[in-house]
Design brief:
A: two-stranded parallel ribbon; globular; B: alpha/beta; Alpha-Beta Plaits; six-stranded mixed β-sheet; four-stranded antiparallel β-sheet; 11 helices; 13 strands
Chain lengths: ~260, ~300
């Protein structure tokens, strides 16, 4: 019975997410941003190799690296899915219906996390395909697309986006407001670590390396420094898990 | 069966619900009455585990709501008819509810049919639903799990007269089936038509928990007197006041008297030789009983009584 209700809660969350048009518009927006971003970055890469300044030359770049750089911007569209899955419930008041149906706050949030993860992962795969599809012809002779490496990059991008989606969900549950959550996410993913890295001081760089966006970046790039790429993945997953715990605590403590 | 034991909710220094101890029994419609801000909705939210009680407990069928695995089979509730996602259709809203509690999809169509929402209305996005349609959708959601306990917060709000009659008949038939039906309303006249039992609260405190007839019987009878002679009527008013009655002169030719019987008023008028065109006793309405019960506990009275719990 308890597995039954868990499946039921997941099915309900999928119904809620798929029955509003904004979900599909968000996915479409993600695809457009990815296509534009990958196209633009591919043009830059090709231009750098063909302009008059030899200092710019990058040589042949992988399509996967262009894809990964395109995620920088695209992620903010994708994480809206995780964000809206919870904040829309607070705005419309349906959170009370949801908690009436499933009184366990942890179960509600886990069901939402499962759906968010699955949807953003699938969307991530699609985005990866689109990014590669756009970047490859634009790069032309300056690009390479080794099958295994490119496929690995696409899956990595999907995993990164899925974890960032769950991070947004957990934070949204804790903060309730979409705008506030998005602000905090912008700060955590980009502004704070960038500010820390700016002076290029070793200690500050180390601190920045722990932030979810930077850790995810090391994972995507397949870095070995400052830690193996899988540690980057683990750090990002840790952030997502911590956000979920925070969200569950807030849902339990506060009146709905 | 809903059991409230010393149920208390404080928001800062404000006591919204104050040590409420009530049993809401199955097989009858229990009306939940109180002025605005009396704590009705807060009480219902605590029963549903949405708000945490500061003290005491609220149990449904002997268990706390948060412990229920598939609560829609135990309690159906309509809290806020406006609480639907603006872009989600009523049908999808109900389907998600059903899925969460392992209720088959065909049940969604059954309850939509029961509340009289056709396929077109059920397919419309939430933002386009009228308040009345929202109420019907909310009631459909409450009925999904065929629960033994039902709670409706202001269910007739926004319904047309047909809808009001429909809710009246529905609550009656649900109670006749042996279910616990707990309905809040500020429409006293509506309660008079539907409720068997009344729970009245004011400023979060229990003012009455009794069969509706008793609540009405406990209030005073009003006597109306009309006369074509204002002078005579004024004399009559003075004598009645002296005799301890409470007299109100709505018009120069009409008095409203409480505290004495119609017989006494008639005798006195005869004694004074005042010609009467009307002498009628009015059975107290629930509305009147309600006003008397809650007179001291209206939070937002017109006068300067607002604020600070006593």
């Amino acid at each position: 019975m308890s597995t039954g209700t868990r499946h039921g809660a997941v099915a309900a969350e999928w119904t809620k997410l798929s029955s509003v048009r904004s979900t599909w518009w968000t996915a479409l927006a993600g695809l457009l941003v990815m296509a534009a971003s990958a196209g633009q970055l591919a043009i830059y890469a090709a231009n750098d190799n063909t302009n008059d300044d030899p200092a710019d030359d990058l040589g042949i770049v992988t399509v996967g690296s262009v894809l990964i750089d395109s995620v920088e911007l695209t992620q903010y569209v994708v994480l809206a899915l995780g964000l809206l899955a919870i904040t829309a419930e607070f705005t419309s008041g349906t959170i009370r219906t949801t908690l009436q149906c499933t009184p366990s706050r942890g179960r509600v949030l886990l069901a939402k996390a499962a759906v968010t993860f699955a949807v953003t992962f699938a969307l991530g795969l699609l985005l990866g395909g689109v990014g590669v599809g756009v970047a490859r012809p634009v790069l032309g002779e300056w690009g390479s697309a080794p099958a295994a490496g490119t496929l690995g990059d696409i899956v990595a991008v999907a995993a990164y986006l899925a974890l960032v989606g769950v991070l947004a969900l957990g934070l949204g549950a804790a903060l309730r407001s979409a705008v506030l959550t998005l602000t905090v996410l912008l700060a955590t993913l980009m502004i704070v670590p960038l500010s820390l890295q700016e002076p290029d001081i070793d200690v500050l760089n180390r601190i920045a390396d722990v932030f979810p966006g930077v850790a995810g970046g090391h994972f995507l790039a397949g870095d070995t420094e400052p830690y193996p790429s899988l540690v980057g993945l683990a750090l990002l997953a840790g952030w997502a898990g911590a956000a979920l715990l925070l969200g569950r605590t807030a849902l339990r403590r506060r009146d709905a | 069966m809903i059991t409230l034991r010393g149920l208390t909710k404080r928001f800062g220094s404000t006591v919204a619900v104050d040590a409420l101890t009530v049993d809401i029994a199955p097989g009858r419609v229990t009306g939940f009455l109180g002025p605005n801000g009396a704590g009705k909705s807060t009480t219902m939210r605590m029963i549903l585990g949405l708000d945490r009680p500061t003290a005491g407990q609220a149990l449904v069928g002997g268990r706390a709501y948060r412990e229920l695995r598939r609560p829609l089979h135990e309690v159906g509730a309509l809290l806020d008819a406006r609480a639907i996602h603006p872009a989600r259709s009523g049908r999808a809203h109900l389907r998600a509810m059903a899925q969460s509690n392992g209720i088959p999809a065909r049940r969604v169509d059954e309850v939509l049919d029961t509340v009289g929402l056709d396929a077109r209305a059920a397919g419309k996005p939430g933002r386009t639903l009228s308040l009345g349609m929202g109420q019907r959708l909310g009631i459909a959601g409450a009925l999904l799990g065929d629960p033994p306990v039902l709670m409706f917060d202001e269910p007739v709000n926004g319904l047309d007269p047909d809808g009001v009659r429909w809710v009246r008949e529905l609550t009656r038939s649900l109670a006749d089936e042996g279910r616990t039906v707990f309905v809040s309303s500020h429409l006293m006249s509506e309660m008079q038509l539907t409720a068997d039992q009344l729970v009245v609260i004011g400023r979060g405190r229990l003012l009455a928990d009794a069969p509706i007839d008793e609540v009405i019987a406990g209030s005073t009878v009003v006597v109306r007197v009309r006369s074509p002679h204002p002078d005579g009527l004024a004399t009559l008013a003075a004598r009645l006041t002296a005799a301890g009655a409470s007299v109100e002169a709505a018009d120069p030719d009409e008095l409203t008297v409480t505290g004495v019987s119609a017989d006494q008023v008639g005798d006195l008028a005869h004694e004074l030789g005042v010609r009467l065109h009307e002498l009628s006793a009015h059975a107290a309405s629930l509305e009147q009983a309600f006003m008397e019960l809650t007179a001291d506990s209206v939070e937002y009275a017109g006068g300067p009584t607002r604020g600070g719990a006593r």
